[in-house]
Amino acid sequence: MSDKEFPAPVKYLDDRLGIGKIGRKNLRKVFPDHWSFMLGEIALYSFIILLLTGTFLTFWFKPSMAEVEYQGSYSLLKGLHMSEAYASTLDISFDVRGGLLMRQIHHWAAVLFIAAMMVHLLRIFFTGAFRKPRELNWVIGFTMLFLGIIEGFIGYGLPDDLLSGTGLRITQGMIQASPVIGTYMNFFIFGGEFPGDDMVPRFFIVHVLLIPGIILLLVSVHLFLVVYHKHTQYAGPGRTNNNVVGYPLWPVYTAKAGGFFFVVFGITALMGALMQINPVWLYGPYNPAEVTAGSQPDWYMGWLEGSVRIMPGFESHFWGITLSWNLIIPALLIPPAFVTLVALYPFIEAWITGDKREHHLLDRPRNMPTRTGIGVAFMTFYGLLWIGGGNDLIATHFGVSLNNVTWFLRFAVFLGPVLAFWVTRRIAISLQRADNDRLLHGLETGVIVRSPEGAYSEKHTPVGGYEAYTLTARDRLLPLDIGPETDDNGVRAPRRALNKLRAKLSGFYFADAVQKPTREELEEAQAHGHDADEIHELTETETYREVTSDRS
Amino acid sequence: MSDEKLPVVKADEGHGAVEVAEPIADPGIEPHEYRITDIDPKAADRVERQVSAMFTLAGVLALGSCVAYFAIPRDSVFEFGPLSGNANNMAIGLCIGLALFLIGAGAIQWAKKLMVDEEISEDRHPAHSSPEQIQDITEAFKQGAAESGFGRRTLIRRGLFTGLGLLGLPAVVLLRDLGPLPGRTLYHTIWAKGIRVVNDVTARPIKPADMIVGQLVNAIPANLPPLQEESAVEYQNARAKAAVIVVRIRPTEIRTKPGRENWGIDGILCYSKICTHVGCPISLYEQTTHHVLCPCHQSTFDLADSAKVVFGPAARPLPQLPLAVDSEGYLVAQSDFTEPVGPSFFERG
Questions:
Q1: Record's Gene Ontology CC terms (chain B) (predicted)?
Q2: For residue range A68-97, what is the model confidence (pLDDT) as tens digits?
Q3: What is the CATH number for B293?
Q4: Per-domain boundaries in chain A
Q5: A93, A291, A487, A521, best to mutate vs chain B, most B CBs in 10 Å
């Protein structure tokens, strides 16, 4: 058969779907290679694992709160009254072969799904991959993270065990604290008073259809955009803003990415086999009058829990109404404000820098000290709240006072991020200086030379051409200039106050940033090195290996 | 801040970067380095054997998982050091997990060691449409809009917006029956005058003499257990509000709130067990300080001082249930709680 015709089955499809055209554009599509690009892949693969294992679980799970007497094979709970949801979860765990495995893979994959999305988000943030043209894909990705967290939390609530019921009770209390509509929302969501018997069936359909459906749609758009924009790449020799250098989809990434799916699935399966997670049979059925000390939500809810835990007990009572600031602030204002800021960050940064170009080369975090500082400040804020979510466990494990831990965090959540911002920015700037040093003064060789006059100096050798290029392959970033107050005709520029603010923020954004050396500076440094750090090409006897052996 | 030292760029230039000649010219992609498997056919064959062994072993393990499924009894237990669990579950999971992992590891090894690893470069194109495309699309859109008369025929336009807008209403109204209106349900519990306080495990009524100083009992109203036979939902809902703790404190240590002088019996006090923060059942009692702590968010209440908040995010004391003793000498409620129990809500006042 000649190459001018497809084999029969492919021809059948091509005649009807035109798959040849799609394949021609995409089969040899180039993807750059870097370990940090696989984080999003982990999220995608754990989502697929969640769909597969979740479907398996629905074959036995009964999303009903009707009361039954447990007669399964877990003898400790035999004869107890419980909801069908809890009883069927026990059946999956003890009477369906492979059921516990699937439950545990499902839970591990859920934990991994959200963790991978979050680390992926951090990678995108710190390398500036969210910049034009990818701002909307950032928002889509962020929406998936947000939905994923809700999805995870609802799934955790479905077995109707004591721990999950406690989580839902807390959520119910938070909803009820919403001003004006709280009580009504509560009655509509739970079908009346808490707990009622509607929550499990309602949350079930949200968990297995509504949210996964939306995530599936968003994943498709997310990936389509990755293909359309082509993947970002790190700066390096031959890697420019106008090309993408790497390996082709067919065959290299088909094998690598396809193989990586199996690796992720394999590892979650091994975790499901060997590591116990959410042993609901130990918690017992939900009872609104009982709770276990040291109750902890899944890790991704920890920061919300902490936000609520460290808030002092403020409440206002006036005109016959109650405003529970102890919940409104930590649960209804701070988390939405936090996530909105993160979701809108690409637009905020673009406004401050005034940068309207397309970016396909990734930043090294050190080269954007303010952004990196902001990122670490956000992580610190999140981390401190997360610590707050376990304040009781920290107190008991480290033998410190719970009250002191809480009081410390009440201040630390405000001071910590500021400190983290400042320290990170200084570190980033120092690293930039170190890079410039490397360019201008070369590498320390460890070879000490004694001059005829008796002076000692260390030989420096220039960094290699590829590395030197990589170090300089970044923008010169400058603060925005908003122009004069009035134009040549004396007319005041419009929106002056806003623009002044913008210029101020921009000045702050680029303050102290170290610019890469110019060509002249580089040539001068190489031409007139002074005694202490003279740059030399190494002589024949001083091999590269010799001078770097202490580094490698 | 040394920002004034930096050169600046004009806002209307549209970006925050300046184009100065690059200090170092782009040397182009590094030359390709050959791998041992590219040069040495023996090494390549060795990798081929590795990959094929991984794939084959994966198949064997897949079969093994099926054998484990049928051969290992579902209630057998595996114990080895810290590793213990259901043997059936573990064997199936180990086989499937390793099989999946080996397929993946084999594919990756194949890609990394045997597939051509010369980097190739592909050009990018701006995300936006070309000027010709923009012109074509704008014209097509304008033509369609003109042909529809959408801009000109304002009556149609208004009608359409009104109709579509109002269709949002049924989408909301139809959800009305998701739940009943709150009404006064949050203000009441099933406690009432004369209802006995019973132990929440044994359902036995409690006599003052049964309680020693320092003791705390989890209790429920006597009319709660019969509800379970009637309706499981009503029972759970009632229990979520009516659960109480009964505590006996040395009367000299109690600071009674004015108006509550006759709410306790010889230092026996009864409080709602439901935290006023978000409704967790408070359950950690410290006898020496008479504090109870909610395990969810660590709100701490002083039971000797009308359960006022001494620490944590809760804002209100636990509601107190006025106690009395009936003719047979058992603890009973004087009335329902005098305020809503559980977490705050807007209309609460």
A1: plasma membrane
A2: 999 999 999 999 999 999 999 999 999 999
A3: 2.102.10.10
A4: 1-28, 32-308, 436-548
A5: A291
